[in-house]
Amino acid sequence: YAQTVNEPVINSTLTGIVVDSKSQTPLIGALVRIKGTTNQVLSDNKGKFFFKTGQKLPYVLEAVYIGYKKQEIEATSSPLTISLVENESQLNEVVVVGYGTQRKSDLTGAVASVNKGLLSQPAASFDNLLQGSVPGINVTQSSGAPGATATIRVRGGNSISFGNAPLYVIDGFIIYNNNDNVNTGASNGVGVNALSTINPSDIESIEILKDASATAIYGSRGANGVVVITTKRGKRGRDEISYSTYVGQQQVRKKLNLLTASQWASLINDVNSSTGSAKTYSDAAIAALGAGTDWQSAALRKGPIQNHELSVSGGDDKSRYLISGNYFNQDGIVVNTGFKRYSGRINYERNIGDKLKVSTNIFGSQSVENKLFGNNYNSINFQSTAFANLLQVSPVVPVYNADGSYYTASPYSSIPTNPIQDFKSTINRTYIRRILGNASAEYKILKDLTLKVTGGTDLINTKQNYYSPSYAGSPGGSSTGYSSQGFAAVGSIAASTWINENTLTWDHAFSNKHFLNVLAGYTTQHQEDQSAVASAQKFPNDLTTFNNLNYAGTAVLSTSDAHESSLNSYLARASYSYNHKYNVTISLRSDGSSKLGKNNRWGYFPSLGLSWNAGRESFFRPASQVVNDLKLRASAGRTGNSEVPPYSSLAALSPSNYYFNGTLVTGIAPTQIANPDLKWETTTQYNVGLDAGFWNNRLTFTFDAYYKKTSDLLLNVPFPLYSGYASVLENVGSVENKGIELSISSDNIKGSDFTWKTTAVFAANRNKILSLGQGTDYYYPLAPTGYVSPVIVKVGLPVGSFWGYNTAGLLTAADVAKGVPYLTGVSQQEGDTKYVDTNGDGAITTADKHYLGSAQPKFTFGLSNTLAYKGFDLSFFFQGSYGNKIFNFLQQKLEIPTLSLNASATLLDRYSAGNPNGKVAKATNAPVAQVTDRYVEDGSYVKLKTLSLGYAVPRDVIRQLHISQLRVYVTAQNIWTWTSYTGLDPEVNFFDSDNTKQGIDYGAYPSTKGFLAGLNLTF
Amino acid sequence: CNKLEEDPNSIVTASQFYKTQSDAVSAVSAIYSTLNTDAAGDFVIYGRNLNLLTGNGSDDQIFSPSNTNTDVRALGTATYVPANDRIKKNWQQHYFGISRANVAIDNIPGIDFDTTTRARLVREAKFIRGLLYFNIVRLWGDAPLVLHDPTSTNVDAQKMKRSPKDSIYAQIISDLNDATLLPKAYTGADVGRATSGAAHAILAKVYLTRREWSKAATELQTVINGGYGYALFDNFLDAFQQASKNGKEHIFSVQFGTNLGAKNSTNSLSVCNFGSFNPAVYPGDQPADSSLYQLFASFDTRRDVTFFTQLYNSATGKYVQFGAARFAKFIDYAISPLTNQNISGINFPVIRYADVLLMQAEVLNELNGPTAGAYAAINQVRARAKISNLTAGLSQADFRDSVFLERRKEFIQEGNRWFDLSRRGGTYLYDALKKYPLKTGAAVKDTLYPIPQSEIDINNQLTQNPGW
C-alpha cells in the first residue's frame, strides 16, 4: 500500500493590491482573506498580495486594515485592486488644535470634544452646556438668573489669587473672558456674563485642550486649559435655508421652607421671653395670623423663553458662506428680570486661484439683561441679593393694602417701602453690544508651505442703567432710593482687543511614512478698556429715571477708569508621525506681557508630547477583532498665567478724601509697592493617556491621568501691617492638582431601526496648596464686616477650604452642670449650640477651628443616552458632582432669630422648655453667628439636566413641501435633582470667580426647571 | 509689534508725583483721610474702631445684641485673643496713617515751593504721626517704630523688632514739639487742620500719661492762656452737632462731611448710635447696663445728650419709646429723615477744651493737691453741665477720683475711658472691668492689648505682650 501525496488542486491564482481610497497609496500589511476559509495573506511592502487556491473564481474576499473599514469584494479576475476607505473612527478624525488641525491618530495631547448632542440643547449661554460634557471641566453657575455668570475650571484651579478661567479661542480669535468688561459699577447685584453675548446655536464644535502638549502653544495663557470653539459654516454643493426655534416656560425649581406668620409670632414671643420681656403676641393673636405672606411666591412667576434662528448657508467649489440671525428671549422667574439677545453672523471663505484663500468670521450681538438688584452690605464689596433679603421679610407684613396698593407701613422696616414694589420699580439694566470679527488670508508659497495672516478685533460696549425710585428700598447711593429721594446711575465701558497673528506652516510627508508638520509664528495683541459712571440723586419726581441726570438735585462724584495692556509672542511647533504609529509633538512659545515687572516680562513655555498607536503594530493584529484601536499618550510641559490687572507691578498712588471745613479735598498716597520682578505663574503638567476602541469602535474609551504643579503663584502675600501695606503682589507659593479622567462611549444597540448610544464621563481632581511662601502657613480671605470668614487658604488644604467649629448638638442641663467649655466671649446656656473643644484645652477658642471640607468636588460625572427608533429620538442627560461642600451662609442667617426678620422653618424644632429634644438652638436675642459644621453642607448632587424627545418627519412626507429636513422635539430641563443640600440649589457660587471663596451660598437667584418645544426646519 | 512698557494714564505712579506744591498738599490730605476713611470700607479709627477698644474694652460698654461679630463681643467681655480681628484692624489703621505721614515727611522737603507752606505741611504730618503713635504706645506698649516707607516687596527686609515704649514716646514728643510751630488757627477751607494748640494739648496728654506733671502743666498753660480763644460751648450738645463743628471748644477734630452724594464719609459711630425707629432693632453700641446712665443726675445736661430713651420720629410725628437708654452723642439730628446716620456729618472730637480743663484739674492736683485752680478747672466743666460745684475740701485722692469720674461722664464714646483706666496703673483697669459679671475674666494682661497674631505669624522678630 503505497502512500500517495495529495497535490493541492489549484483552480485559480489571484494577484492584487490594497490601496487607500483617497490617496491611492499602497497599504502595507493589510489582511486579505477568502471569505469562509482560513486562507489569508498579508499585503507586502508595496501593498501587493497573491493567492494560489483551489477555489474557483469568482469568490468573495475580505480585506481588513487597522483604521480602515472592513471591506468585502467579489474577485472575478486578476489583478484586483482593493481600495479601502478610512474608518471614520475617532483615531482618524481631524480635530482642531491650537493654530491648526491635526489627525486625531497623531495627537499627543489630551484633547476632548464636546458631544454634539449636548451642544444642540437650548441654553442662554454656551458655558451652561459644558458642565458634564467632557471629563475634567467643571462648570458652576453662580445662580439661576438669566445671563448669570459661571465659574469654569479645567482640571482644578491652578492659581489662588488670579485668573483660573480657561482661555477661549473662537474661530482662531483668542479671548480671555473678563466679566469686568461688562460690569461698569453703575448697576448692582450679581455680575453679568460676557460669554452670554455669544450665540450658542452658532457653534459647530467645541474642543477642550487640557494637557501641556495641547495648550503650551498658548504659552502664558494656556495653564487653565483652552476651549476651542468653531462656528458653523456652509457646505459645498448646495444652498440651504434653515429655521429653528423653541419656545417654553420655566418655573422655580424649589422654594425654601420659612416660618408662617403664626409660627413667626411664636418665635418672637420666645425671643422676648429669653430676655424676660413680655410676650408680643397673645395666643389668640397668633392663631389669627395664619399663614401670612409668602414673600417668595409674591416675587416669583412663570418665565417664558423663546429662541428663533434663521440661517442661509452653502458653497461651491471655490467658496463657502453662512449668514445667520438669532433672537433669544428669556423672562426670569423673578419679576422684572430677564435676558434678551439679538445676534447675527457672517462666515465666508473663498479660494482665489490655486494658492490664496481668504476667509472672514464676523459676529455681532446685542444683549439686554434685567438684573435683580443687590443690597450693599456693610459698605464692603459684598452685595447680598435682593432675593435673599426678601426671604427675611416678616410674614406678618402684607404685600398689598385692601385697595390693591402696596403696603408700606411695615413696622420692621426703618423706611416706608415694600419689597415687591422695589423689585418691580427698580431699573437695573445692562446692554452689551459686541462685535467679534476676524479675517485671514492663507497663501500657499509652496505646495506644502502655507503662510497665514490673521487680523481680528473684539469690541464690547456695555451700558448700564440704574434707577431706584424715591419710594423704593433698593440701593441708592450710600443708602436707598427712598433716602436719596431717587437715585440714578449710568455707566458705560468700552473694551476692545485686537490681534494680529502670522504663522508659517510646513506640512510634508516623506515617502508616505514620515509625516512632518512644522509651525512657526509671531502674534501680537493689544487690549484696552475705558469706563465712566455718572450718578445723581434727589429727583423732584420719578418720571425721567436714569435718562436725564439734569433733573437731579445732587450730583454724586463721577468716576472713570482706563487700562491698556499688550502681549507679544513667538511660537513654534513641530509634529512628527512615523506612519501614524509613533508620534511626537514639540512646542515652544515665548510671551512678553506688559502687565508684568520690567525685569521679567518674557516667559518661555515648552512642551513635549509622545504617542504610540499600539493598535497598528503587527503583533497586535490578532486582537484587532476585539480591540481595533489602542493608543498610548504621554506629555510634559510648562504653561503660564499672567492674569493680573494692568499696572500691578508699578508703584501706584491712590486717591482718598477728606473734608476741611466741609470742603472736599483729595489726598494722594502710595497704595502699591513697585515689584519690577513680577513674573508669570508657571504650571508644569505631566499627562499620560490611553485611547482604545473595541469591536470596531462600538465601544471607545479614553483615560487620562495628570499631575500639575503651579509655582511662582501670583499671590497677594500678607505683609507686616506696620509697613502701611496689608499685602504685596509677589510670586511665591505653589499649588498642585492631580487627577484622573475617563470617558466611555458605547453604541449599545446598533440596529437598522433602533440605536442606543451612551456616553459617560468621569473626573476626579485633587487640589492642594503646597506652599504660601516662607513664613506663611495660612491666611483668611476677607469676610464682610461682622461675619467671620468661613474660608481659609492654608498649606496642605485645597483652595476653597471651609474653616470653623465642630458642634455636638445643643448644651444640655447636664453639660451646664458639668461645666463643659463655652465659646469664649459668649454667655452660653442650656439649649445653645454646643461647640466641640477640638484641641482639648478646656476652652472653645479660635484654636478649636479646623478644616470642615472643601468646595472642590471629589469627582464629577456626566451620563448621556440617546435612543433612536425610526424617526424618533429620545435623549437624557444626567450630570452630577460628589463630595463638594457648600457653606450655607443663608441658612445660618435664617436660623438667627431676630425681632424683625423671618427665619427658617427649621426653627420650629428649636430647643425650648416644651421641646427639650429640639435640634436647633433656642431662641435668643443675642445669637452668635459662627462658622460651624452645621452650615457646611454636603453639596453632592445628581441632576437630570435634560430629557428630550424628537421626531424627524419622513422625507417622503415633506418632499412635496420642498423641505429637506424637519424635526420637532420637546425637552424638559432640570426636572429631577437628587441632593441632600438644604439650600435652593447645590449649583451655587455667591462669590463667583473668586477662587478662595468658592461654594458659598448667600441666597442666590433661584434655579429653574422648564419645558420647551421646538422644531428644526431645513429647505 | 506692541510696546511692552506700561504708560498708565488712569493711575498716578510714584515717579510722576512729589514734584509740586499741590502734590505736597495732596500727600498731607491723604494722611488726614486715614482718620475718617478705611480703604476696605471698614469702620474707621475715629468713627467707631478705636472706640471698640476704648469703649467696648472699658467699663462703659459690653456688647449689643446686634453684635454678631464675635470679635466685637469678645472685646466687650474681656475674652479677646491675639487673633481678634478688631484689634488687628486698629493696629493696621494706625500704621496705615503713620505710613502716609512717613511718605509725606520724607518727600515734601525735596519739593521746591514756598518754604512756609512746606514747613507747615511737614508739621501737620508730624502731628498726625505723633497722635497715632501715642494711641499705639498706649494700646500696645512697645511697638515697631516705622519712620520710612518700604522700598521693596521683600517681606524679610520689612521685619523688625518692637522698640521700647520710651523711644516711641521720644519720637512722639519730638514730632509734637515740631507741630507746636503750626499756625494757631486757619481760615476758610483750611479750618480743621492741625494747629499749634492741638499739638500743645496732645503733648499735655502725653506728659500726663507719663506722669510728667510739670511738663504737662506747661503745655496746658499754653493752651489755656496762649491766646487761642478756646472755651466751652454753653450747650453740651453743640460739641457734637454739625452746625457748631470746629467751634471754640474743638481743639482737634476728625472731620466728617454730609454733602448727600458727592463722596460722603461714612460715620459708623453715628450708625451705631441710631439705626432704626424700630425699638426691636438694637444699635451696634450699647451702654454696659443701666448703671452708666444712672451715673448722671437727671438735671445733668450731659445725660440726655449722651443717651436717649425716646426719640421723635418726624415722619410719623410721634415719639418712639425705646425702653433702656441707648447712646445718643453721635446722632446727627441735622439729617432728615433721621434714618441715614452713615452719612452723618458729625466730627469726632479727638481733643476738646473740656479735656484740657479736666487735665488741668488733674495735673494741678497731682502737683500741689486740690488747689483753687484745680477746683476752678473742674467746676468750669461741671457748670456747663448745669451741675453743682465739686464738694470743697476733698483730699488729693478723693479729688483725683472726682476728676476721673468727671472725665468718664464727659467723654463717653470719645475714645478716652480705657486710656484713663489704664494710665492710672496697678489693678485699676481690671478692677473696674470685673464689676461686670461678663468681664470677670479681666486680668493684668488686659492693661495692654495683644500684638495681632497675624503680625507675629509672619514676623518672628515680634514678641507678644505679657500674659498673652
Short description:
Chain A has 1019 residues and is mainly β. In chain A, 7% of the residues lie in helices and 48% in strands. Chain B starts with 11 loop residues before the first strand and ends in a 10-residue tail after the last helix.
Description of the molecule:
The complex is a heterodimer of chains A (1019) and B (468). Chain A is mostly beta strands and 1019 residues long. Among the domains of chain A are: 12-84, Immunoglobulin-like (Sandwich), CATH 2.60.40; 94-231, TonB-dependent receptor, plug domain (Ferric Hydroxamate Uptake Protein, Chain A, domain 1, Beta Complex), CATH 2.170.130; 807-848, no CATH class. Chain A has eleven helices and 54 strands. The mean pLDDT of chain A is 88. Chain B contains 18 helices and five strands. A two-stranded antiparallel ribbon of chain B has the order 2-5. A two-stranded antiparallel ribbon of chain B has the order 3-4. In chain B, α7 packs antiparallel against α8 (196-209) and α9 packs across α13 (353-368). The longest helix of chain B has 26 residues, at 115-140. The chains are: A mainly beta (1019), B mainly alpha (468). Chains A and B meet through β29, β30, β34, β35 and β39 of A and β1, α1, α3, α4 and α6 of B. β34 of chain A pairs antiparallel with β1 of chain B, so a sheet runs across the interface.
> What is the number of strand segments of chain A?
54
Shape field of chain B: globular
Largest sheet of chain A: 22 strands, antiparallel, barrel
Strand content of chain B: 5-15%
Q: DSSP strand (E) fraction of chain A?
A: over 45%
According to CATH, the homologous superfamily of the domain at 94-231 in chain A is: TonB-dependent receptor, plug domain
